[in-house]
Design goal:
By secondary structure, the protein is of the alpha/beta class. It has 6 helices and 7 strands; from the N terminus they run E-H-H-E-E-H-E-H-E-E-H-E-H. A hairpin with a 5-residue loop joins strand 5 and strand 6.
Length: 199
């Protein structure tokens, strides 16, 4: 297998996940929504031709999936950029030719988008999926370009734009995937109320 998908995931504990959403619906309900997002994410991965590396945020225990494509480990680093660099480095050290990182916040992530991301890496150095909130739900590359994760104002609406500036600043080619919406707050949840049965 030449392709790898890295999934950044948290243990779905009340008070530890979806904290902005929890302000409106409570910690237990927010954790339930997050569990459903995890399921949707891994359903999208079912038929993707790639090995899956789940990087857990924190010291908790993941439910290890009984699938030979799955590998489980923990995130390492002081901020999101350092954690992504570490994850990409670990996967490329194993010999994979293309790697994507996704989170577990985007209910619209799909097999088609993931496959297109891998396809885009045939002709581009980077592929990126912008999120409506100014971040991104996916970034992929065919080798580690660590510098694009530096000097990024994480957890702000400037993440995507600053990342593109870093990519262009070092002369890398890139493709842009469809813009999707993460679920971070009540407004996001309501945007999907007729499409997904959350809660």
């Amino acid at each position: 297998m030449e392709n790898a998908v890295i999934v950044f995931e948290k243990e779905p504990l009340p008070g530890k996940v979806k904290t902005r959403l929890a302000k409106d619906i409570g910690e237990k309900e927010a954790a339930k929504v997050y569990k459903q997002l995890i399921v949707l994410t891994h359903n999208a991965l079912n038929d993707v031709q790639a090995d899956i590396f789940v990087f857990l945020d924190g010291d908790g225990m993941l439910k290890v999936r009984r699938d030979s494509r799955y590998h489980h480990t923990t995130q390492w680093g002081n901020n999101l950029g350092e954690r992504m660099v570490h994850a990409f480095r670990e996967v490329f050290k194993k010999g994979y030719k293309k790697a994507l990182i996704i989170g577990t916040d985007c209910p619209e992530i799909s097999k088609e988008i993931l496959e297109d991301a891998f396809f885009q890496l045939d002709n581009h150095d980077i592929t990126i999926g912008p999120a409506l909130d100014g971040g991104y739900y996916l970034i992929g590359m065919n080798k580690l370009y660590a510098s694009i994760f530096q000097s990024i104002p994480w957890s702000t609406e400037k993440v995507y734009d600053r990342t593109l500036e870093e990519i262009q600043g070092i002369g890398l080619s890139f493709s842009v995937l469809p813009t999707l919406r993460d679920i971070d707050d009540w407004e996001d949840l309501m945007a999907f109320k007729n499409k997904f049965n959350f809660g």
